[in-house]
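Tokens for chain A. Residues wanted.
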């Protein structure tokens, strides 16, 4: 299945294009998509997205959205989903 990954904020510096298309197995999760993106970016995503120690814990300075709503790593993606990797916003 095809999934689109969008990068926002400082995450755009990881790749020359702000959008990446992945071809994942049906039933793939957000976590599996992140691993595929990290592989595609030759490991550049890992240190920014994962908390220290490399465990499967998303860093608190990363917001993951699937189709514009907050997502968790074990969420199953649907064909055509859009996964956005963005820094959290702050207001004032």
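Reply:
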């Amino acid at each position: 299945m095809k999934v689109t990954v969008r990068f926002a904020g400082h995450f755009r510096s990881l790749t020359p294009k702000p959008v990446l298309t992945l071809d994942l197995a049906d039933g793939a999760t957000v976590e599996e998509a992140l691993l595929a993106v990290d592989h595609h970016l030759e490991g550049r995503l890992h240190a920014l997205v994962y908390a220290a120690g490399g465990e499967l814990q998303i860093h608190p300075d990363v917001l993951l959205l699937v189709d514009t709503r907050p997502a968790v790593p074990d969420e199953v993606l649907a064909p055509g989903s859009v996964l956005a990797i963005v820094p959290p916003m702050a207001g004032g």
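The two ends are 40 Å apart (CA to CA). The chain is about 15% helix and 25% strand.
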